[in-house]
Amino acid sequence: MSTPGHSGRRESSCPLDCPDACSLSVEVEDGRIVRITGDHRNPLTAGLICGKVRRMSEHVYGAERLVTPLRRRGAKGAARFEAIGWDEALELVADRLSAVRERWGGEAILPVCYGGSNGLLSQDAADCRLFARLGASRIDRTVCAAPSGAAHRGLYGKMPGVALTDYVHAALIVIWGANPEVSGLHLVPRIEAARKRGARLVVIDPRRTGLASRADQHLALRPGTDLPLALAVIRWLLSTARADEPFLEAHTTGLDALRQRAEPWTFERAAETCGIEADAIAAFAELYAATSPAVIRLGWGVERNRNGGSAAAAILALPAVAGKFGVRGGGVTASNSGAWDHDPLAAAGECWPSTRVVNLNQVGRALTAAEPPVRLLFVYNCNPLATLPAQQKVRAGLAREDLFTVVFEQVMTDTARWADVVLPATTFLEHTELNPSYGALAMSLAPAVIAPVGQARSNHRVFTELCRRLGLARPDDPDTEQQAAAAVVRSVGDPAALAAELQSNGVAAPPCGNAPIAFVDVFPRTDDRRIHLFPPHLDAEAPAGLYGYREDPAPSTYPLTLITPAESRRTSSTFGQLSRTLARVEIHPDDAAARSIGDGQPVRVFNDQGEVLCPARVTAALRPGVVSLPKGLWSHHTLSGTTANTLCPDSLADLGGGACFNDARVEIEKTEATDPPGCGSVSTSTPLRKE
After folding, report:
1. Given this model, what pLDDT does residue 555 score?
2. Nearest-angstrom CA–CA distance, 511 and 151
3. What CATH architecture applies to the domain 8-61?
4. Helix (H, G, I), strand (E, B) or coil at 593
């Protein structure tokens, strides 16, 4: 294997928060990336990669790239940053960690992270070791996939779903709350190939996405009403003898309780709640019952509201009730991360202690009102100011002069501008990573393809060094990234086979293979190998009981529902520094006309939590009563420097403590144009990157 820094072509893998985990070919000349393309080691991605990763070098070498540790000088919010060396930075951070722990206890330390764009060596590895041994507060990473994950574990255990490569075999494909053209583009060619073979396509989404515009049926329901729609279909299947009774008898529990909860939801009642026609629901139910193989792609848009966990559970129950398993291309796909039955803390060599738990969606509350207070904040693998709900609370917490904040980042984010110490982090191309996909059934071992840019360091190196400086290191800790990767591999069912495949190809299939058929090759990983249609613990957790619908919280003063979908230019907030285009809030022509708003008009989007100033885009691509502003925006993407997150509540979903972004209710009015805020005030006494 070539040493990073030389010229040549190298293999890598993308760990960014996307289900596909592309295998990559990286061309390097004189130690610099000159071209990134896809290769064919991952059978799902098969040489095709997205534009974001193709242009990854702009992120690696861009003007906002952090290449040296920085220390704040001056007041927060108007700070200057000066370059310091790693020894000084690590000693400062270690001293503060030690002092806070000694004076206020370990729980006064809060690590804030989200691992969506990180592999197994950058999340819950050396970082977990450090914070567990400090006795720090724990972060419950619930901003995405928590409600649907809780539902999936409750019903199926960790059974993998339909392989994305097998969608080509389906006769009916239902895309429910997902937009794979933006997030997970490799599913789209399989959908198109299936359609050429005669497959039907149904899209369930409040917006008319690209796939929705080409679908055989588009159900543009109100946000937060997926649960009534799914229960209405279940009720009809059970009441018209269209359910697969032999399968339900042999492979499920809890059917009677599910039947009882679905019973009130006639097509007519669901139609009134969802804002669609009863005949459209009936047509979808008939098509789903009559077609095999039929597969549902369950997206994460479904869970982003007060009913999100129960909605996901009801959708996951549909293929069991309708008997869609047992054939290639039939069933449901949510997250396939369960295909890897590994110890998630194997690289840490440590377990989390029983310390205070802070929900990631309520970090703003924790920083402004927690008792005892948080005294030291350590942010890594995320950009909380751009991604978490209740943005104004998060900003108020970051502004506390008595809060010592460390941000370990690749670029100067909105969050990093509030830090006391900024540490430069490597990208996935600059360190070794072990990456299990949650969509493609593949795990990748990707060595560094270039040397770290400037003085950037990997998560493993920094957290291992902090453990050493604080006297928390132990002789048996995994000392290198390779040792940490080996520890993870050893925790898998057949470690020798996995290690051999990773060594020879860099990409390996899980023990179940890369295209298992449910109830043929894989079965629920529940205690009795059955689907639990009504798990009692989920019923106890949900405020209205499992499958209990909670009404729309919209106050009359804020009649519009704000949704925050993903955008093709960013992965969550990653790459936000590369785009300077102002975001636009999308509004339906009827809603725009009622407010005398024209296309391109500067508007104020507001509720009791705050406001966002931006131009409007008038479009019929979403239903009336719904407005859309992309997630992951940075301050320079709006006229006010605030983003959609400032309007989103920090209330929690019914299961898993998940986020309720789509429960934001707003009003919109015309406003006067104003100059954009730029990217925030920051100055440094040295460049952020080397020239």
Report:
1. 79
2. 24
3. 2-Layer Sandwich (3.30)
4. helix
